[in-house]
Amino acid sequence: xxxxxxEDGIRDAQESRGLGDVYKRQNRKRMTSLYKSGNNLxxxxxxxxxxIVLGLCKEVITANGQRKRISSQTREEIEKVIxxxxxxSLRTIGIAYKEVRVTxxxxxxxxxxxxxxxxxxxxxxxxxxxxxxxxxxxxxxxxKIAGITVRMVTGDNLETAMAxxxxxxxxxxxxxxxxxxxxxxxxxxxREFVGGLSYNSAPGQSxxxxxxxxxxxxxxxxxxxxxxxxxxxxxxxxxKYILVTGLKQLGNVVAVTGDGTNDAPALRKADIGFAMGIQxxxxxxxxxxxxxxxxxxxxxxxxxxxxxxxxDCIRKFLQFQxxxxxxxMFMAFLGGVILRESPLNAIQMxxxxxxxxxLASLALATEKPTEExxxxxxxxxxxxLITPGMYRSVFCQAIYxxxxxxxxxxxxxx
Length: 414
Description:
It contains 15 helices and 15 strands. The protein is an alpha/beta fold. Helix 11 (264-269) links the parallel strand 13 (255-258) and strand 14 (272-276). It starts with a helix and ends in a 7-residue tail after the last helix.
């Protein structure tokens, strides 16, 4: 990029004066910056999604530094390069420019983005690769075993997104894309298919009952998407928010990862948001519930294990406490009825409570998570804390202990 500037002879990068990133909006998938040098010459640099930038260009810089009109054949050759980069999991960025002579800085900014982003000269296509971490494939496989569906929502183009998804094992290596597939979709196609978001209240609902709105416009179509979608390419922050809203509307427990300011609405909407501790913005961190200090997807697996372990420990604690309290209450009641006095005095009862409430609870609550916790499906949102099986176990154990205590010889008998 800077080599081209020096060879062109217009100016050195340090001698130019920036007029600012005057045209930068998320939904445009590109950014334009204006720079002014001598002789009232303004150069507009445009960078962004390669296919979008290419569509705005009429000329291209050849290998020998000459400008050349982009013919249909040349355009096809450039598109082949873009597709070739994308199939190698490279994120492609188009770089172009346009020169304009103006009378003042204000005159340059008054021309508007449509003027500066038309009839461009293409400088080149850059392919950027962000290598996936070695442990990401194993983490995705663990998620599948644990019953967690991993979906990739990205702004990359379709081919790049599919290549990365195959590298991460989100998509099978033999996957072949077709336009009718719901496994891989583009943001625009996704929004149109699910009907976007509806902000109208449901008939007969009050404002208090209306807390879950907005909702997905076409829920039947979204059910099909939820069952199949794995990759959402060329997406916007709105698409991410729609996806989270629809999944929660279907009763799913949703976790979202994000690092940018635009991810904040989806992070806040999700049941649990994971923000990146290193690359994440402060807005994303404030909206999230958990911050990953190492920006590693594998840390989510650790969070899942601890979450499931805590839930299981709570169940074990409740089962133990219900059993011993039922036995203690029954013994005290029956002893008062038959013997006219409690088998245990106040001090003894306090000691029993101290042992069974403190030491036993600590033993159950400090159990470390194991890999076996990932070998089962997650609990649903409506799962009861005490299951029918736990009730049966509590009453059977209580009856057994009561019978054992009343049939065993007492110290007075001996």
